[in-house]
Design goal:
The protein has 6 helices and no strands. It has one domain.
Length: about 140
C-alpha cells in the first residue's frame, strides 16, 4: 500500500494518497508514505495555483495595455504560455521521478523521507526517524 501511495499519485493526484492514508491508518509505515505523497500533491497544487494566478494577472494586464495600443494579440501570451507549459512539464517529470524513486524505496521497506516534507510527515504522525514513536511525556 505504501508503494501504491507513491505511484497512484501520478494518476490520482491528491485523492489516491488521501484514500490510502484513511484506509490504512493503523499502519504507521503506510500512513507515513501516504502522508508524504499527499503533502507533495498539496505543494504541487499550491504551486499550480500561484503560477496560474500570476499568468492570468500578467495576461489581463497585457490585454488592457495592448487594447489601448493596437488590435493584435498581447505579446505576453506568446512569451508566458510556453514558459508555463515548460514549468508544468518540469513539475510533472519531478513528480514522476519522486514517485518512482520513493515507491521503490517503500517497496524495500525503507522509511525514506522526502526532502523537507518527510520531516513534516513524521511530525504530523508523531514519529521519530525510522518510524520510532515519540514519547508522549
Amino acid at each position: 500500500m505504501a508503494v501504491l501511495a507513491h505511484t497512484l499519485q501520478l494518476v490520482g493526484g491528491w485523492l489516491a494518497p488521501l484514500i490510502i492514508l484513511i484506509v490504512k491508518r493503523d499502519s504507521k509505515f503506510v500512513s507515513f508514505h501516504a502522508l508524504q505523497a499527499l503533502l507533495l500533491q498539496v505543494v504541487h497544487l499550491v504551486l499550480w495555483i500561484i503560477c496560474f494566478g500570476g499568468f492570468m494577472v500578467v495576461i489581463f494586464a497585457s490585454v488592457v495595455t495592448q487594447a489601448q495600443a493596437s488590435n493584435g494579440p498581447p505579446p505576453a501570451v506568446f512569451l508566458l504560455f510556453p514558459l508555463l507549459w515548460l514549468g508544468a512539464m518540469a513539475m510533472w517529470v519531478f513528480l514522476l521521478v519522486i514517485a518512482i524513486v520513493y515507491g521503490i524505496k517503500a517497496g524495500h521497506g525503507e522509511w525514506a523521507e522526502y526532502p523537507l516534507l518527510g520531516r513534516l510527515a513524521l511530525h504530523f504522525l508523531k514519529l521519530g526517524p525510522g518510524g520510532v514513536p515519540l514519547s508522549t511525556s
